[in-house]
Design goal:
By secondary structure, this protein is an alpha/beta fold. It is built from 19 helices and twelve strands. The protein has helices at 2-6, 15-45, 50-69, 71-84, 93-110, 114-120, 124-138, 141-159, 170-251, 255-282, 294-309, 331-347, 381-385, 406-416, 472-483, 495-504, 521-530, 550-557, 571-583, and strands spanning 290-293, 314-320, 326-329, 355-364, 367-374, 420-426, 430-438, 464-468, 488-492, 509-513, 538-543, 563-566. The strands form three sheets. A five-stranded mixed sheet has the order 2-4-5-7-6, covered by helices on one side. It has a five-stranded parallel sheet with strand order 9-8-10-11-12. Strands 1-3 form a two-stranded antiparallel ribbon. Helix 2 (15-45) runs antiparallel to helix 9 (170-251), helix 8 packs antiparallel against helix 9 (170-251) and helix 11 packs parallel to helix 12. The termini are far apart.
């Protein structure tokens, strides 16, 4: 309230928080505490006249109220002074409060001037309300616990005849006992408040995380389906393009057609990159920490997000080291962090100038640094102090602007990955988030197989190939191109039809799609492998799913497929696989 008053920003936008603060500090701390203390005094000394009781309670209450209303503004001014002199980063107000309490208690317990000690004793009644205020303001639970420990030490010292209260009148003991109960009551009040808030925060976080998980799962399913549907026509374009290249070689078409083919090739690659981004987003995820290429995740995510930023004057710059660096992280959680940070930067942009977002990934020793910065409005110190506090937001709480949970979720995600997050912000300049992750060993490189030389004359016996795909145009195109190599080619519309054909005829190789009606590619492959001599059959999967999803990777390891190609694939890769099938030619018996 004092800060709002001095900055002329009096409003009731956070009235609930102000009311809660007043209830805890001014009611519980200043009403219940003296009541408990004086009742303890009655218990120690026996019956006390009602007028003495009321007088003592009133004096105590006034002292507590003064502690809140007088010392709190002074501490705020002191805190602002520290910030202006750049001392706040190393000298936190809660620490100053704690050390002040230590000095005061040490003086009272071990002081040599008993007269000075006795005269300063009333100031003890002003300490606890201020500490309660400090604990609520700075969430300094350890502060109250520390002071409570000091109070307990004071009691023990008095009982052990150590300090200025030793061997003195009973009144000193009574005052010290009251002080102890005052500390206990205020501490328990804050502990209860803190515990309830923490419990509610965890409950809200769990609810939000579950909602986000469901939403991301639904988006992932849609993305996977869209990717599959886009990949089929994309493969048709790619195969046709390669077919036109063959025509060019044989008929020496004009250079203009070469330029057209190259333009088509670039367009196909661009669409393919977008689809791969969708596939990566839809990829099966878990919470395990593993060697994660942050640059690869960033590139895949940016391919998707750039389209949504068009026309919004948003520029994204990247600065990645040339060599691959792997962090111990989780790809799905890193995606969520990127999504929340980009949305946060868009919300904090300065309207009159373009938004520039910079993403830098580097390695220093055993730590991997991911730095995300923007040139937005920046944050003041109050906002910076509460940047990860759930439901804290400088925007209106509504469906469009969110509920102030984005950065809080980021903090939890980083901690779940055993990382650190450092925030730096300057008003009018921008904000920087720096994430530190443990370095992970570089995974062994995937050895690329040498491309076999394809002999178009095919002096060996041709293969009997069955092509299975529910996309008629793509199926016919694959059959045509394989047939041009001299092989015998047959086709089926789905897995069920293909399995019936395999019962009647012998095939050397099966090329199958994954998602098909009636029977998918995995089920077909399993049935074929279970048949007699099924292990010797060469099965190729053309999948429009997330290039290579976890389930398909497992199927390859189980020797279900000899090759898996993600759509769009190139004909030369398909022909290379068929050349490999020649080497292990075996006919599946009827």
């Amino acid at each position: 309230l004092y800060q709002k008053f001095v900055t002329k920003k009096l409003s009731f936008e956070n009235f609930k928080g102000v009311l809660l603060f007043l209830i805890i500090c001014c009611f519980l701390a200043t009403v219940i505490s003296p009541t408990i203390g004086l009742l303890t005094l009655v218990y120690v000394k026996g019956v006390v006249p009602i007028e003495n009781f009321l007088k003592g309670w009133s004096v105590w209450y006034i002292g507590d109220v003064l502690g809140v209303l007088v010392f709190a503004p002074l501490l705020i001014e002191f805190e602002d002074c520290l910030k202006k002199n750049n001392l706040s980063s190393n000298l936190k107000t809660p620490n100053l409060l704690f050390f002040a309490a230590v000095i005061l208690f040490s003086f009272l317990v071990f002081g040599f001037n008993r007269g000075a000690t006795f005269s300063s004793f009333p100031f003890l009644y002003l300490i606890y309300p201020v500490l309660v205020w400090g604990a609520v303001r700075f969430q300094a639970l350890t502060l109250l616990v520390g002071v409570l420990i000091l109070t307990t030490i004071s009691i023990i010292c008095t009982w052990a005849n150590i300090g200025p209260f030793a061997k003195t009148s009973q009144s000193y003991y009574n005052l010290l006992a009251l002080q102890l109960f005052l500390g206990v009551s205020t501490c328990l009040t804050y502990l209860l408040h803190s515990t309830i808030n923490e419990w509610l925060e965890k409950l809200d976080q769990m609810r939000i995380r579950q909602g986000l998980a469901t939403k991301f799962a639904n988006i992932g399913q849609i993305a996977s389906s869209v990717a599959h549907e886009v990949n089929n026509p994309l493969n048709i374009l790619l195969f046709n393009n390669e077919k036109l290249e063959d025509f060019e070689v044989s008929k020496k078409i004009e250079p203009e057609y070469r330029r057209i083919l190259e333009a088509q090739e670039k367009t196909i690659k661009r669409i393919s990159d977008i689809v791969k981004g969708l596939q990566f987003f839809a990829k099966e995820k878990n919470d395990a920490l593993e060697a994660t290429d942050l640059a690869a995740i960033s590139n895949s995510f940016l391919i998707l997000i750039r389209g949504t930023l068009k026309g919004q004057q948003v520029e994204i710059e990247t600065d990645f080291e040339k060599q691959e660096i792997f962090a111990l992280a989780n790809a799905g959680k890193v995606e969520q962090i990127f999504l929340n940070l980009i949305q946060n930067s868009k919300d904090a942009r300065i309207s009159e100038k373009p938004l520039v977002i910079k993403i830098k990934i580097s390695k220093s020793g055993e730590k991997i640094s991911l730095e995300f910065s923007d040139n937005g409005k920046g944050m003041d110190q109050t906002t910076l102090d509460n940047v990860f506090t759930p439901y804290f937001s400088t925007k209106d709480m509504n469906r469009e602007s969110g509920m102030g949970l984005g950065l809080s979720i980021i903090k939890n995600l980083v901690y779940e990955m055993q990382g650190q997050v450092i925030v730096d912000s300057t008003q009018g300049v921008g904000t920087s988030f720096k994430f530190l992750f443990d370095s992970a060993p570089t995974p062994p490189p995937v050895l690329k197989e040498e491309e076999p030389v394809i002999d178009k004359s095919s002096d060996q016996l041709p293969l009997r190939v069955l092509v299975v795909d529910d996309e008629a145009m793509l199926r016919d195109l694959v059959c045509e191109r394989i047939r041009s190599r001299g092989h015998s080619v047959y086709s089926a519309n789905d897995g069920e039809e293909a399995f019936k054909l395999c019962k009647r005829q012998k095939y050397d190789a099966i090329i199958t799609d994954h998602q098909m009606p009636k029977m998918n590619g995995i089920t077909l492959a399993q049935k074929l492998r279970d048949a007699e001599n099924g292990d010797e059959l060469y099965i190729i999967l053309l999948s429009g799913l997330s290039g290579y999803s976890n389930s398909l990777e497992r199927k390859t390891k189980e020797n279900l497929f000899n090759k898996i190609f993600s759509k769009p694939c190139r004909l030369k890769d398909l022909f290379s696989a068929l050349e490999e099938a020649k080497e292990k030619r075996t006919r599946l018996p009827v």
